[in-house]
Amino acid sequence: MNIALSLSSSSSSSSLASPLLFFSCRWPSPPPCSATVSRLTNPFILHAITNQATSSVTADLSVSVIGGNAGGNEQTLLYLLRRQKTEEAWNLYTQLPHLPSPACLSRLVSQLSYQNTHLGLKRAQAILTRLRHERQLHRLDANSLGLLTVSATKSGQLPYAVSLINSMLRSGYLPHVKAWSAVLSRLASSPDDGPTQALKLFNSITRRVRRFSDPAMVAGFRPDTAAFNNVLNACANLGDVKMFLQLFEEMPDFGVEPDILTYNVMIKFCARCGRKDLLVFVLERAIEKGIAPCITTVLSLVAAYVGFGDLDIAEKMVQAMREGRRDICKILREANLEDSDEDDGIDNYKESSGGQDEVDLFQKLLPNFIQANNSEPPLLPKAFSPNSRMYTTLMKGYMNQGRVTDTVRMLEAMRHQDDSASHPDHITYTTVVSAFVKAGAMDRACQVLAEMTRIGVPANRITYNILLKGYCQQLQVEKAKELLREMSDDVKIQPDVVSYNTLIDGCIQVDDNAGALALFNEMRTKGILPTKISYTTLMKAFVLSGQPKLANKVFDEMIKDPRVKVDLIAWNMLVEGYCRMGLVEEAKKIILRMKENGFYPDVATYGSLANGIALARKPGEALLLWKEVKERCEVKKVGGNSDSNSPPLAPLKPDDGLLDTLADICVRAAFFRKALEIVACMEENGIAPNKTKYKRIYVEMHSRMFTSKHASQARQDRRRERKRAAEAFKFWLGLPNSYYESEWQLDPNDWDDYGVYSV
């Protein structure tokens, strides 16, 4: 196995000293080499030679390889980079007719990335783009690529950073843990499939690290505690109990010990999984391991109970901290006992979650949970005083429950606190504004904004976005637009994509689709990039105005945008657009594209299609749709799709809207057997069928069915089965029906008898 030289700058001379964070690099396979570059110009070798005199000789060798009279420029560029004169070095680089040496390129990219500015990042990316076009990417070392990755991550260019890490892995480089852990941190908290990508990235890197038998050789690349905390946070966001436990147990394999942040993530994880009863045992486990809790630990606990809507416990915790008490564990244990008196504890959890398997996993994660009754709750190592963040978290709980008076009372109490750390800040005031907006009291919300200005607590973009949303919810779009102008012109806070998305949605609510389109274009003109919500909101405008083709054009733009990942909501919006116009065939083509792109139709998709079928009066299509819906409903019963060649079907839980629409179509079309199947499905899913409506439809449309006395015998024989189905349906409705001797039951093999032509 080939191991590259270390890129550490620890042995460098004083001339090479810089504030840059240098990463080391190892690769499990030799890096690709260009035929035009000598081994002497290998970037790893050049970067490893740290002696001043030796570096000059090496630079001369690289110049001789490139050729020409550029030796002076090369030496000047290297001199500027060593003196941290990055701007002059960049200007000289842009004037060179050829590529500089690998050492110069790597240093230049590193220093531009380290600036952490938009311009520096743009220039570093330009160098990378040029090298890619000229097939010279091997000139950059892992140190420069790692710094570029960190810079792109900090600037919000997460997809670019992920692509850099993946490119390094494909090329055989192992990025430094600081670089890939930074990407992991952002992925873990990203929407859509960000947490899933974080898990894949972590597994990809650790799989390569395990190939080295000597851990010292990959010391800078192995996951540290911060990296594990990031990937555990991804598991917490996914609610994946099994993977969380597996990763937690892998920490000792890499010589990593959990810290208090690990247990803070575990608190979040238990809250996400609905295990309120385990929160106290996470705290006790940390204390048992000798890991001192921090103020964030206590804040996480308060936030967890607020998230559960259990404000009584949250208030008790805050009050205990105000009194300087350290028996928080005792308070939480007593709360667990009170909750256990109201339900069946673990047995109740088994019924509402993954069952015994998940219970066993949690017991492995928190073994102290089992011996809880045999031990006294420990005391905190020290007492904590509540701060403004904690009070604000409690205020959010009041706001979520509509307790506006308590929210305002908490604000007043914070103002009179002796401790300055407990005084209200802009987040506190924004929470109060949000409470008034949620209650529909826009005047009082604006008064809080005015008070913030008076006392010198500056409102931020989030504050104004909440007010914009409040005006739009009350259909006061003109006031929202006026506030947007005040926000940008008077307060000098530039609106973001959330501001425009809120206004666009407000225009749609008042049927101002032209205004929505104008705001979308204005947003793009100002250089504000649209998000997934921007596209789907604009699609909604065209859908509601009966212009599905324009919605389709917006959808196509969304697909072309590399920053945006199309989700099921966007697909459903497009399906809804065509179904609203009764264009069933076009909608079915969209659904087919959905499936080809790996998206399963959900209840909303099928509901839109059912409404489109009803509008188009195509009952035969309803039968085909019901067949697919029934298959999806049966997936959870049989455990998957029996056809191994087709992709597995995701289970479906139908709602009353979908089933009621399908039943309505079938009753109107006299598909009584299928109507009874749908009714049975409704009852299985706890949905009460609307018998009154179906009875009215039957009486109005089918009361004289099968009453003709002049039908031929052949015709009477053909309709005999349908007549039995009609009698069974009448029996279910409670209408007078003929007595039938044999018991009527649903036969799944009778699909062909009730095809499209059975009307």
Short description:
This protein has 759 residues and is an all-alpha fold. It is built from 38 helices and no strands.
Query: What integer is the average pLDDT?
Result: 82
Structural class: mainly alpha
Question: How many extended strands?
Answer: 0
Major sheet:
none
Distance between the termini: 73 Å
Rg over CA atoms, rounded to whole Å, is 33 Å
Low-pLDDT windows of residues: 1-69, 345-353, 642-646, 739-746, 750-759
Describe what you observe in this structure:
Belongs to the PPR family. P subfamily. The radius of gyration is 33 Å and the shape is globular. It has 38 helices and no strands. Helices cover 63% and strands 0% of the residues. The longest helix has 20 residues.
Write the layout of secondary structure elements.
Elements lengths: L42 H6 L3 H15 L4 H12 L3 H10 L6 H13 L3 H16 L8 H13 L3 H13 L6 H12 L5 H16 L15 H14 L2 H10 L9 H13 L6 H10 L6 H13 L3 H12 L5 H15 L3 H7 L3 H10 L22 H13 L3 H12 L10 H13 L3 H14 L5 H13 L3 H13 L7 H13 L3 H13 L6 H13 L3 H13 L7 H13 L3 H13 L6 H14 L2 H20 L17 H13 L3 H13 L6 H12 L10 H6 L1 H14 L26
Helix pairs in contact: 2-3, 3-4, 3-5, 5-6, 5-7, 7-8, 7-9, 8-9, 9-10, 9-11, 10-11, 11-12, 11-13, 12-19, 13-14, 13-15, 15-16, 15-20, 16-17, 16-20, 20-21, 20-22, 21-22, 22-23, 22-24, 23-24, 24-25, 24-26, 25-26, 26-27, 26-28, 27-28, 28-29, 28-30, 29-30, 30-31, 30-32, 31-32, 32-33, 32-34, ...
